[in-house]
Design a protein that fits this description.
Number of strands: 41
Radius of gyration: 28 Å
Strand order of the largest sheet: 1-2-9-10-11-12-19-16-15-14
CATH architecture of one domain: Distorted Sandwich
Number of helices: 19
Largest sheet: 10 strands, antiparallel
Strand content: 25-35%
Structural class: alpha+beta
Distance between the termini: 55 Å
Length: 798
């Protein structure tokens, strides 16, 4: 069943059946204030960190699902009938509702009991609060007297402590109503800042005041959940609504909520605006800032703030644009894929319907990869994040696997973490030409200050010192695949994928140094060549590359293996790392097609592990066909697509790309949002294939964004220009790309009359043919490029 569709321009996903298989969410945020909102108004709000700055509560894995949220109750004062402006928790028939998820906002429309409503949720760019902008229209043909109540359940501080220590933690809650400011305020006088649950008593208070206000005069309010809901009730039938019981009392303990009630009279066909705003003010500026609260619920401010959101996303998405014969591809690549990639970058992979921000901070490898999605449109943000990553590195090249903004982190023995830093830095420089970043001074964790260049060399040093008996990377506690976590045993084991990854990253560094004419690359070249030689000599299994050497010489990912015979990563990265034997790479990619491809996309490995093997790790304990145990793990499929493009296989690359599009599968099977990628899709190794999970916060979006533009339509940055190298399906006879690069907009039209997969006959830049396939840098604001694919067509100017 389909539950919705994209708007004509592709910028909105419109849910027409709100009984979606799982909550389908969106993100509204400004970089400091974050909120999620589902198609039924469920979700959380937090300031800066979902662990330390939780504003509202969300009950994980609860029944009923997706509660609490950002609810608005409407009650007819004459009949006593009430409902919510979202179908849950107290809505009318689901057919009365429609949800619009847009870029930076979500709107819910309804027509219940003759009252048409549209509530739009968004977060202004420059103020730390969220807006619930309600427009009510009386369609009933008679005058209506309405009672309208906004409701949130507060958490106030540390998200994990709120879950595991409510019995004590709630005794530090405070809430009161300020009549002069027309706002309800809440805070906590005790604030834990440890990253995990602890018995350590911290003598500090939460540094924020939460507030909840409206543009209409608040005449009643409630501050305790039990008083609002009734002790044995839920959000479906709050006693405050059904029995008109608002205590109008402050709270000095307990489950603090914000419930504010306003009244509204509507003549027939009259339309009125009701605005609610939930936000925070820092305590150090509270007395100065709180007097401005009435200003942020004025209609003029709301209209201006919403336009800012629309303009912000239009500017971000305007740096790349594509037109292909496939409308579905255009919708995703012009809107939702870069949007998801930016959300993942800004949120930091810590909060979604699946991840509720209570256990981990930023991931070093995740963050490094997320950088590549924002270098095009927001290079200054990419640079900030690179410098943040730099501060998580030790002078020997080790990095925190997970880290927080406050400088705390977790050291593990993942062999790949530091190497992703090279990717972030080199892609940033290619995009911007900002070589000065290499001279930026940033402290290592162990206090030794060094330049970004010093940090890059520290990564090389880490790689050199992390090789095992085959001169391949010591596996440690995992590589990119965290679930191969016990392969190492006593002697460490070795990662074959890690070796390919090291070669690929060293290639990037060598390329940069050679462009800058850095002398004395002997040691780096020697390291790269040694690892590459050992991959070629020791890791080929006849039809594909093995995955790892385990404890005592055990081989993972071999044709001799009973389970987990072939893994996708070592086949794709053989191409990405530019191994010299191309015949092996072609054979390896053919093996992926034969053994790993499925209706839902290529699997991460096959056959799935069905027997637990503690010498391999968590992957064998996972359900076959899910997660890393034989699922269609979407992130590595992007690398497979890149590999097929490198090997000039446009048809196969497009096939894999198309299979992963989230709206391709029936939503009753897929279940997750059909407008963003999920981490994985259950494969045919499971009895119920096709179900997606862990949507939004996945590296898939960042990589698919770049792989599509860099390798499929083939417009990728280099240190001295833009490379043009499309690798496309033969059915695409024409594509048009707009790409902003170093201040110039390149408008590139590609014609493919001979229906080839790759190859260029000629390129015209502003009407003049150039040699090769690299567009030179230009001072022009707009540069027109025509590309003719094929190998035998004569150039137009002959």
């Amino acid at each position: 069943m389909n539950y919705g569709h994209f708007s004509e321009d592709g910028k909105e996903y419109i849910i027409t059946n709100v009984k979606t298989p799982t909550p389908w969410i969106n993100y509204i945020y400004n970089g400091e204030y974050f909120s999620t909102v589902s198609n039924n108004a469920g979700g959380i709000s937090y300031i800066k960190s979902p662990l330390h700055g939780r504003i509202t509560r969300y009950r994980i894995n609860d029944v009923p699902s997706d509660r609490p949220g950002k609810y608005i109750y409407v009650k007819d004062e004459e009949t006593g009938k009430f409902w919510t402006l979202s179908w849950q928790p107290a809505g009318a028939d689901p057919g009365a509702y429609k949800v619009i998820h847009g870029l930076g906002y979500t709107a819910i429309e309804s027509l219940v009991d003759g009252i048409h409503a549209r509530v739009t949720y968004f977060v202004p760019m420059n103020n730390n609060h969220e807006v619930w902008n309600v427009v009510l229209t009386n369609k009933s043909g008679r005058k209506r007297r309405l009672s309208i109540t906004g409701y949130v359940e507060f958490a106030l501080g540390h998200g994990l402590i709120d879950l595991i220590n409510q019995c004590d933690d709630q005794h530090f809650n405070r809430a009161y109503f300020d009549k002069n400011l027309n706002a309800l305020f809440a805070t906590k006088t005790y604030w834990v800042t440890e990253t995990n649950g602890t018995q350590h008593q911290e003598n500090k208070e939460w540094n924020q005041w939460a507030f909840f206000t409206s543009n209409l005069r608040i005449n009643r309010y409630e501050t305790l959940r039990e008083r609002f809901l009734g002790f044995y009730n839920s959000e479906e039938k709050p006693v405050a609504i059904t029995e008109d019981k608002f205590s109008n009392s402050a709270a000095d303990y307990g489950n603090v909520v914000g419930a504010i009630n306003v009244n509204l009279e509507l003549e027939s066909d009259q339309r009125e605006n009701v605005i609610f705003s939930l936000g925070v003010l820092p305590k150090e500026h509270f007395d100065d800032k709180k007097k401005d609260i009435p200003k942020i619920v004025q209609p003029e401010y709301i209209e201006f703030s919403f336009k800012e959101i629309v303009n912000y996303w239009s500017e971000f998405l305007g740096h790349t644009k594509v037109e292909t014969p496939d409308r579905n591809v255009n919708i995703f690549m012009n809107n939702w894929v870069p949007y998801q990639a930016k959300v993942a970058f800004d949120v930091g992979r810590v909060a979604s319907y699946y991840y509720w921000g209570i256990s981990r901070g930023y991931g070093f490898r995740d963050t490094s990869q997320d950088v590549i999605a924002v270098t095009i449109a927001h290079p200054e943000k990419a640079k900030e994040r690179i410098l943040l990553l730099s501060r998580q590195m030790f002078s020997d090249g080790r990095v925190y696997h997970h880290f927080y903004d406050d400088g705390k982190g977790e050291l593990t023995r993942h062999c790949d973490d530091p190497g992703w830093y090279i990717l972030a830095v080199t892609e940033y420089i290619k995009e911007t030409g900002d070589y000065s970043i290499l001279k930026e001074k940033v402290s290592f964790v162990d206090r030794q200050e060094g330049t970004v260049l010093d940090h890059l060399l520290a990564v090389v040093n880490f790689m050199k010192n992390n090789l095992g008996r085959h001169s391949l990377p010591v596996f440690g506690r995992g590589d990119w695949n965290d679930t191969l976590d016990y392969i190492g045993g006593d002697d460490g084991g070795e990662s074959v994928w890690g070796a390919m990854f090291y070669v690929a990253m060293l290639n990037k560094l060598i390329e940069l140094f050679q462009f800058l004419k850095v002398e004395n690359l002997t040691e780096i070249l020697k390291l790269r060549d040694e690892i590459r030689r050992n991959i070629n000599q020791l890791c080929w299994d006849g039809d594909w590359f093995i995955r790892a050497f385990g404890n005592g010489g055990m081989v993972i990912g071999s044709n001799k293996s009973k389970e987990g015979k072939i893994f996708v990563n070592t086949q794709s990265w053989a191409a990405i790392s530019n191994l010299p034997d191309k015949s092996k790479i072609r054979r390896a990619l053919d093996s992926v097609k034969k053994h790993l491809d499925s209706e839902y996309g290529p699997k991460i490995c096959a056959p799935a592990f069905k027997e637990i093997d503690p010498n391999i790790g968590l992957v064998t304990r996972c359900v076959p066909g899910k997660k890393e145990n034989g699922a269609v793990f979407c992130h590595p499929v992007t690398w497979l697509i890149q590999a097929e493009c490198i090997m000039r296989n446009g048809e196969r690359a497009y096939d894999y790309f198309s299979k992963l599009l989230p709206n391709r599968v029936d939503s009753d099977i897929y279940q997750a949002e059909p407008y963003v990628y999920s981490q994985y899709i259950t494969s045919d190794e499971h009895a119920s294939p096709g179900k997606a999970s862990h949507s939004w916060q996945t590296g898939t979006a960042a990589w698919m964004y770049r792989v599509f533009y860099d390798y499929i339509v083939g417009i990728r940055p280099d240190y001295d220009g833009l490379i043009v190298d499309p690798v496309i399906p033969t059915s695409w006879n024409y594509i048009r790309i707009e790409r902003i690069f170093r201040g110039a907009k390149y408008i590139i039209e590609v014609e493919n009359p001979d229906k080839v997969q790759s190859g260029i006959s000629y390129i015209l830049v502003d009407g003049k043919e150039i040699e090769g396939n690299k567009l030179p840098l230009t001072d022009k604001k707009i540069c027109h490029v025509k590309v003719l694919m094929g190998k035998t067509i004569e150039t137009a100017n002959k």
